Amino acid sequence: MMDMKQLLVIDGFHLPPGAAPVATVDIGGTKVALSIVDAQGVRAQLVEPTVKQGQHDALALQIIRLLRQSCQAAGISTSDLAALGVASCGPFVLNHGMVELAAPNICGGLAGQARGLPNDWTTALLEAPLRQVVARVRVENDAIAALEAERRWGALQRQGQPLANCAYVTWSTGIGVGLCVDGHLLHGKNGNAGHAGHLFVSDNNDALCGCGNVGDVESLVAGNAIARRFAALGYADAAVLFLAAEAADTRAIAIIDDLCRVMGRTLYNLVVTLDLQRISIGGSVFWQHRELLLPKLRSHISGKLPSLTEGCDLVAAGLGERVGDFGALALVV
């Protein structure tokens, strides 16, 4: 096992001298980011919008194309890669032991045409095609990957040691959660443990999630849900909503308070169910507005059932906006 401290440098991360290069992929509902990393650092990095059209192998083919382009830019071949780490939004479905994606923000066949995705996929092929190109592939839910990275290098450690009972939560295009209890990362039967974005914590009968649920957490507060729910009120996306709140728009402030009530209840449920020490939070919606959101979220936990909630704190992700990059790397070092 490599010394993880050797991986961090001021400008990013690198592998120890002489280590074979690795590739990392971060798959989200909005974008795919692929990097080649070796002892010199990040040799090549490509980012594209996530492919959502064509046959259900289109995403895998996009990753393979980006992988070959990145290797060419780095002056290596795919056969030189020691491993490929894939951190992806979920849920996952196992097909002959290989991960396929059943991700609500990618697969349009889950919720149907009302969701507006330009495909009818119920799953997107992933692991099997990648293994035809790179021998060693590790695929994990992106929140689990981020959890590993936060425990090694970020906010989920204490005095240099990973916390035994903790979680990472992303509030972004979707809602994702990675869980660690008694020092063990939770995976579940198909690697889907932690999909708290699909909990029901509030009554709602008109917010459609990409998974087909109506009124779950993701359908109510995710970045794409904000646009769907509030565009008719003049808030075209999360950025517009938060700008309006900064300008003292009382309706926008009330909407944000309601979003935090839903997310705060979700975090409270995680704390009291799993007896956690700390939750770190990342993702684009949270990170860009963390100074406003963090105190509001804390208010939904602090003082409630102190025997279970005292000693658990909410913090911003220690790795910030790069938690996805470090998450994918944590899978293969």
Keywords:
23% strand; 5-stranded mixed β-sheet; alpha/beta; 32% helix; 333 residues; globular; 17 strands
User: What characteristic shape results from the CA principal axes?
Assistant: globular
- Secondary structure tally, helices: 11
User: Fraction of residues in helices?
Assistant: 25-40%
In total, the number of strands is: 17
Structural account:
With about 325 residues, the chain is α/β, with parallel strands linked by helices. It has eleven helices and 17 strands.
Q: Helices, strands, pairings?
A:
Layout: E1 8-9, E2 12-13, E3 22-27, E4 31-38, E5 41-49, H1 58-74, E6 84-88, E7 92-95, E8 98-101, E9 124-125, H2 127-131, E10 137-141, H3 142-153, E11 157-158, E12 161-162, E13 166-171, E14 175-181, E15 184-185, H4 217-221, H5 223-230, H6 238-246, H7 250-274, E16 278-282, H8 284-288, H9 290-299, H10 306-309, E17 313-316, H11 323-330
Parallel strand pairs: 3-6, 6-10, 13-16, 16-17
Antiparallel strand pairs: 1-2, 3-4, 4-5, 7-8, 8-9, 11-12, 13-14, 14-15
Helix pairs in contact: 3-11, 6-7, 7-9
Q: How is this structure best summarized?
A:
The chain has 333 residues and is α/β, with parallel strands linked by helices. The protein has helices at 58-74, 127-131, 142-153, 217-221, 223-230, 238-246, 250-274, 284-288, 290-299, 306-309, 323-330; strands at residues 8-9, 12-13, 22-27, 31-38, 41-49, 84-88, 92-95, 98-101, 124-125, 137-141, 157-158, 161-162, 166-171, 175-181, 184-185, 278-282, 313-316.
